[in-house]
Amino acid sequence: MDGYIGRSEERQEFRRLLQKKIASLVTVQGRRRIGKSRFIAECAEEADHFLSFMGLPPREDITKQAQLDAFAGQLAKQTKAPKLSLDGWPSAFQLLASQLPVSGTVVMLLDEISWMAVGDADFAGHLKTAWDMHFSKRQRLVVVLCGSVSSWIEQNILNNTGFVGRCAWQFRLGELSLPECVQFWGKRGARISVAEKLRLLSVTGGVPRYLEEINPARTAEQNIADLCFNPAGMLFNEFDSIFHDIFTRKAETYREIVRTLVAGARSVDQISAELDRARGGSLSASLMDLEQAGFITRDIPFDPETGRSRPRDARYRLSDNYLRFYLKYVDPVKARITKGLMKNTALEKLDAWDTIMGLQFENLVHANLDLLLALIGLDKKLVLNAGPYLQKQTLRRQGCQIDLLIRTRRSLYVFEIKFRKHIAVSIVDEVREKVKRLKLPKGQSVRTGLIYCGDLGPEIDGRDDFDFLVSGETLMMA
Prior knowledge:
Blueprint: H1 8-19, E1 24-29, H2 36-44, E2 49-54, H3 64-78, H4 89-98, E3 106-111, H5 113-116, H6 123-133, E4 141-147, H7 150-158, E5 167-172, H8 178-182, H9 194-204, H10 208-211, H11 220-228, H12 238-247, H13 251-259, E6 266-267, H14 268-275, H15 282-292, E7 296-299, E8 315-318, H16 321-330, H17 334-338, H18 353-367, H19 369-375, E9 385-391, E10 400-407, E11 411-423, H20 426-437, E12 445-456, E13 468-471, H21 472-476
Parallel strand pairs: 1-4, 1-5, 2-3, 3-4, 11-12, 12-13
Antiparallel strand pairs: 6-8, 7-8, 9-10, 10-11
């Protein structure tokens, strides 16, 4: 569809960089397909000049020279430089610096920078030298380092002592908010139910590239069939593509880790036991890579009484809706999909669909926490802790699980998140029992809320049973 959707705060920040007289170094991280390159290109429209370079995708026989040759070709197409055979990145960056426009504002994007660095262990050092000697001296230049392999940027740029104090802005692009997602349905969106939109978002999440594939004239089921249960659909082979591009040889290992989280959040010990791998070392590093890549979230529980966090009890949640849907419903039947046997799949008939849909809806709510806080009139600055909460059962207290627990200095907010066709009055007693089991500090108030999509039982009285009733429609229209 026409126009660029979302990212208003990030665009405003980029605009401030363009207004500075000095050079700026920026890093952009985020999962594949989240729109990093597109975002920079949109921002660069306000600059006088835009130069963009991208590393070659990984393959078994890729070499440093191949990356240099690709860079030289891209440079020749965008400047007056001839296509030269470059002998290394120092000469490549020096040639690039010599071709920068002499006046005006310039945005220079080094995209998929970890691919560009293949075969050269000193790439980051060469880049740092080029920044110090050349790029930093060019006024009104914004150099953007962008990549889907966030761990490479973390290790080689953000945690590299050579780059300390040099980055003017480090940011991560996340999924679009629910109101921004709705815009991809265009004018037809007004005629499409919230439940149908959420069914589709249970697959795409707020990933812009996936949302661009929505055909508003077709139902959620038809769109999902086109995208996932069709061998030619974009999301049929997407999983293999993104895992290969980001994790290369370790793709299968990361795939197995993610698979353990399909049915719900897990602790490191649970993941370790399921995979029969040691808790520390490579497993911890792999979990960190998956978190930095934007696929999983590490939820650190906190004590409702004191607010103290408990890192040792952290649980990992599969926060990427596409990954869960793919691993649960597409991967096990790829052979049947290839034969065209899954084209008319009914979502409601998929195994454990209601449970999975509940987990996907929870992801959408957690990703839109700021919207929720605004809707209930709670200033974000007052929030001390927020996230899913699991209270383990002990000899002295009963266990309980809360979908979203928010803590301020004087109050606890207990939210239940439900996606069902019909939500029975029994939900009231369920939440009351959870509140009863919580260990609370003296003088602390408790407020309850229900975030839902579906028909509420007529017996549910929002005035007395819950302090807040927040529908999916309200979130989408916020």
